[in-house]
Amino acid sequence: MPANSISVVPAEHQWALQIDGTPEPRQLFPTLEAAICAGWARARRENIELHIQPLAGSVRLRAESVKPADVVG
User: Fold this and answer.
1) What superkingdom does the record give (predicted)?
2) pTM of the full predicted structure?
C-alpha cells in the first residue's frame, strides 16, 4: 500500500518519521533536523506530503519539482 503522507512527530526525547497509510514502523531520529531531512527525501521521491508536527503548531510541505534550497522564506 503506498504512503499517503509522511509525518515528523515528537517521540520520547527524539523525533519519529511516521509513514501514514502504511503498516511501516516509525523510524526514530535523534534530532528534528535529521527527521525532516529523511522525511523530505522520501516525500520528494514518492511525491507525497511531508507534515512536520513540532511541539507547538504544525507545518505541511508538498514535494514538487522545486528543490528545498530554491524555497527560502
Assistant:
1) Bacteria
2) 0.71
